[in-house]
Amino acid sequence: MSILHSDEQRLIGESARRVCSQMYSGQDLKALLESPGRYDDGFWRACREMGWPALAIPAEYGGLGLGLLEFIIVAEEAGRAVAGAPFLLTSYAAAEAILLAGDEALKSELLPALASGDKIGTLAFAEGTDPVPKDLTATLADGRISGVKQAVVGGAHADIAVVLASRDGVPALGLVDLHDPTVTRDILHTYDNSRGFAHIAFDGTPARVLTALDAADLAWSVLNRVAIGLAAEQAGGADACMELARDYAKTRHAFGQPIGKFQAVKHKIAEMYVANQIAKANCLEAAIAITEGSTRADGLAAAARVSAIKAYDFASREGIQVFGGIGATWASDMHLHLRRARSCAAMLGPRFVWEDRVVAALESGW
Amino acid sequence: MSSDLFHELEQYRERARIWLKQHAPRFAGEARYNLTDASDLELGRRWMALKHAHGYSGISLPKHFGGAGLSQLHQAVFAQEEMSFNLPTLYFAISLGQPIPILTLYAPEEVSRRFVPPALRGEHIWAQLFSEPSAGSDLGGLRTKAVRDGDNWILSGQKLWTSWAQYADYAVILARHDASVPKHKGLTYFWLDMRAPGVTVRPVRLADGTHDVNEVFLDGVCIPDSQRLGGIGDGFAVAMHTMVIERYAAGADETGYGPSLQQFMALAHNARLAGDPSLADGRVRESIAEAYRLQQALVTMRSKAFLALVRGEEPGAEGSIHKLVSARARQKLSELALDLEGPVGYCGVHAKPKENWVASWLAAPTARIAGGTDEILLNIIAEKILGLPQDYRPDKGLRFDQIS
Question: Of A48, A72, B147, B210, which alpha carbon lies 20 to 30 A from A171's?
Answer without folding.
Answer: A72
